[in-house]
Write a structure and sequence with these properties.
Distance between the termini: 56 Å
Strand content: 5-15%
Largest sheet: 6 strands, mixed
Oligomer: single chain
Low-confidence stretches: 1-5
Helix content: 55-70%
Length: 1020
Amino acid sequence: MNSTEKRLRILNEEEREALYGRPQFTHEERIQYFSLSPREQALLEQLHSLTSRLYCILQLGYFEARHLFFVFRLTDVAEDTKYIQERYFPNAQLTHPSLAKVTRLKQQRLILALYDYRSCHGEERKTLATKARQAAMVYSKPIYIFRELLHYLEEQRLVSPGYSFMQDTVGRALTYEENRLATLVRHHLEEAEIKALNRLLEDAPGLYEITQLKREPQDFRSSEIKREIRRGEQIRPLYHLAEKLLPALHISNESIKYYASLVTYYSVSRLKRFDQWIVHMYLLCFVYYRYQKLHDNLINSLTAHVRRYADAAKGAAKDKVYAYRTEDNANLPKAGHVLKLFTDASIAEQTPFQDVRAKAFAILDRDTLDAVADHIATNARFDETAFQWEHIDELAPQFKLHLRPILLAVDLAASAGYTPVMDAVDFLKAAFGKGRSLGQSPPHVFPTRFIPDASKRYLYAPQTKGPKRLLPDRYEFLGYRLLRNGLEAGDIFCRESVRFRSFEDDLIDDQQWQEKDKLIADTGLRLLNQPIREHLAELEHRLEERITDVNQRIARGENAHIEIKKRGQNVRWTLQYPRGSEPVNHPLYDVLPQVDIGSVVHFVQKHCRFMDAFDHVLGRYAKQEADPGALTACLLAWATNMGLGRMGDISDMDYATLALTSENFIRLETLREANDQVSNAIARLPIFRHYDIDEMLHSSSDGQKFETAIPTINARYSPKYFGLKKGVVSYAMVANHIPVNARIIGANEHESHYVFDILFNNTTDIQPTMHSTDTHGTNEVNFALLHLFGYQFAPRYRDIYEKVRTSLYGFKHPSQYDAELLLKPIRKLTPHLVIEEWGNMQRILVSLALKSTTQSIIVGKLSAYARKNKTRRALWEYDHIIRSLYLLDYIDSPPLRQHVQRAVNRGESYHKLRRAVSYANFGKLRFTTEHEQQLWGECSRLITNCIIYYNATILSNLLAYKEKTGDVQGAALLKQVSPVAWQHINFYGHYEFKKGAEAINMEAIIEQLAQVSVQQELAG
């Protein structure tokens, strides 16, 4: 790690310059950073020469901007020097443009004391190395460790060492972690276990064993699920080995997932070139994660099938009820004719009754007449539930085929309240395991405590003699249905699963929690260290004050946006919502020349070198480097939903070249790094900060639905969006128009479970402080979690009146508030519950911070209504406090509502651009696996990022031109133009990558735009 060539590459040149380079101030920034506070002026009084004072002001400004010191001559910063001299020393003459080193260092010591900062030397650097090793145990990605170190330096008010030192520190931490893990694995593995792991990499007939294990089931078909069950049986012994060994490695679940992903990324030949003990560790992580993911797949299949059968039964029952009602309605007139037989004067009184009855049966047959008579006499309603169970009888062959193998393959446990259900599950497993039909079991052996009273009438059939007979097929399906309910509520769980294990298993274990204070300190979460009583007292004061103030403003008529409607004793109010948005495809772009998408990608690569992120899967062993043309073709093939085959047909790149390039260079890891690089490059453009909302980086997240043309394991039905088809959701986070993070989720998953996940795992330099969603992004815990992690959660509510009516809380009983209050709390908060459970809440938060599991899984379990234990209720109670504060602010502040609407609109604008990029195959995804969908998601985000970078570069250059020429009005209007536009970009046609993309002349574009009328184009 001594030479530059061997140092770890963490940042690209632009990122490094943005973090460590001397600031290049604009005029506005010079005004901001070179303004002197009274304390800074007092420091300046200690200096005598003009050179010393000038240099000190420069050092003060640069330190305030970067918290770093720089070595420079005054001639190197001539513009800044000129500004300071004109502002502070207009009549003085600079005679000595250089400063002695001893004076420069003395000034730095004074500045450190002024800002209460320290240099990072000796003991501080040792501590930094320790922090790096701790971070490497949580997550072994260099950028994660680097950012954790920067956070620690900022928190401790330490001046960051140079970039090369940070590279070396991160590199040594990773090397230390690798050696630590290799040593532990070597000491714990026995010879037989080593051989079993090596067999995964042996060349077997057909495919390597590990290659077969990498394959995920395509859907929930019986053949796919049975194949998945066989894979589980194959790796079960290795899973138990991993289960025993991995805790001894002291790595987080997120690290296990990361190391497992390396086995997915790397070919067998590459894995064989690594240190064998590291490979064994990777394989153990892969087996551990794959075995748990396998159980997720099985349980997801079970719950999906049960839901499908139940929905089919409901649909069939409704159809049957409709058919009967239609038939009854048709028969009622005939029944009237039957009744008229009794008043028909043409029928003699002496007519025998059997003759009259014969006439009646001629109108309606006996059974139909009997049914209509019963319906009229009793006003009977059709038993829809009975019809559902009749349809379940018809579905019995299907659910036995699909569900019994899963039930036998999965080990389940449950909380105490679900013991009767588990008794039934164990009984079913025992019967199926012996190959016995349920009908062969005597009635008295069936556990029946789990059968709800309301269901008993449908599960038993009457007999002519003796007690009612239990219907085995209905009994079995009821077991599956209650099992599904328990799994989805979290009361039934599978420890060998990621998503369905118990909530307690998701948290850091008891042994780790013994070092509670240290763990809390490591997270850097300020609120966790504040005494909870003191914190709640502050929140109580704020909330009660806001309840009073907001109601008083409404009563005085100062909130002009709220409209009150009275109907007798009922009072209802409405709130005016802001209109308008930042439109996409602004008319300004109509003036631009058409440019093909390949040229845009080439332009972005030229300016921010994002393709450097695409390293070969074989790393330093590879002789091949990525061909920019082939890589661009692959990215577009994935992003446009076209596919490599179709791209090979319509471009000058053949399929074989594209397939090889994609396999070697395009991975989720490289795509995410490339996206981060482009996002960070956009953030460094001058136009970026003008997109701030209320001088704040305000992000939003939302899901975009895409129909899948080919079944995949994560595709789900959503009648609202896909009709009878299936699809997935691309959930993206947008900040200042930039898609900084995204992931693919199932259409059946609740978007609110991913809000914290997508914020906390954002790896760009764009770190928002406020985050908005629509109503789908809200649940019972997001306000609490985001607040405790330092974010302001600001959702947009569809029905704010109803939300306030059901969700506004106070620290006093509702009867203690003025009865005339329009916004009155519905319930008294119970802060003592938060106080009692604060330790357990801290454990949950630390587990989230230390990535003990995927955040969306914990959030999903925390926000499930069926999981009301004391700790979760305490977290919900804390959430009520923060939500109540927000609701009051939302009602009271029109600017806040406008800002939220603006942030959400930006996400919707991004979705329009994303849809335009993924135009091929009518926007229906044609990928066969979830992994391919993830690749498409990241590629399409990368191409949209490139388009936004290109547009933002044009706007930044045009803004500089307007400011330089003094066009104040034009500059102001330009700052409102969104970079989300694509009408000037050609996505279609024949692609040519070999001859090189056409160069984009930015100067010519700006010159052309400069001639356009500001009023005609910018105001349009």
